[in-house]
Amino acid sequence: MLDADFFHRWMTVTAASVDREAERLTALDSPIGDADHGTNLQRGFRAVRDALDKEPPATPGAVLTQAGRLLISTVGGASGPLYGTLLRRAGKTLGDAAEVDERRLAEALRAGVDAVMQLGGAAPGDKTMIDALVPAVDALGDSFAAARDAAAEGAVATTPLRARKGRASYLGERSVGHQDPGATSAALLIAALVDASADTEAGGE
């Protein structure tokens, strides 16, 4: 079972991953976006980490809801509303439960992904974060590791696609050949589940 501490660790690990990969995310964003994806997410997840450390929420749902709210208020561009919607909707889906299992987390993240698709109008194949999140959620029923691998593969698979949503869509064929930064950062978020889970197991030994 996954408690609030696990979700807190998930957000903390994500913040650390974004810190490490910020320059790469911005480099990916440079040819097809505003060259600020890494710095924007870095600012947002640092705010999430600091807020959760200062006053940790008591339930998994509350952790994700607070994280989503902070991302919306601190991350510029489209990333803030999209990531914020993902986590807030997932948090609201989890409700007030003190602990949730992996199946319930998968259901909550699917609700979050559906909300992101509704907000941004993107679908799989449009060269967005959805291309990493949908296969990840589909694989969550197997394991966190399977979800991580599916998200990573989904991000890489955006490279040959032509962007149909977001800033990159204005480039038309010139968006082909570039890995989508949003899908790449989404893969970091999913990969952090594995590290958070490993920390949980280590703490229980």
Mind explaining what this structure looks like?
The protein is mostly helical and 205 residues long. The chain has one domain: Alpha Horseshoe (Serine Threonine Protein Phosphatase 5, Tetratricopeptide repeat). 68% of the residues lie in helices and 2% in strands. It contains eight helices and two strands. It has helices at residues 4-29, 37-54, 60-74, 79-94, 102-120, 130-139, 144-156, 181-203; strands spanning 2-3, 99-100. A two-stranded antiparallel sheet has the order 1-2. Helix 2 crosses helix 3 (60-74) and helix 6 packs antiparallel against helix 7. The longest helix has 26 residues, at 4-29. The radius of gyration is 16 Å and the shape is globular.
What is the element layout, followed by pairings?
Blueprint (H helix, E strand, L loop, with lengths): L1 E2 H26 L7 H18 L5 H15 L4 H16 L4 E2 L1 H19 L9 H10 L4 H13 L24 H23 L2
Antiparallel strand pairs: 1-2
Give keywords:
2% strand, 8 helices, mainly alpha, 205 residues
Main sheet specs: 2 strands, antiparallel
What is the H/E string?
EHHHHEHHHH
Count of distinct structural domains: 1
* Oligomer class: single chain
The geometry reads as: globular
* Total number of helices: 8
Distance, first to last CA: 16 Å
Spatial arrangement of strands, main beta sheet: 1-2
Mean pLDDT: 92
The CATH superfamily name is DhaL domain
Structural class: mainly alpha
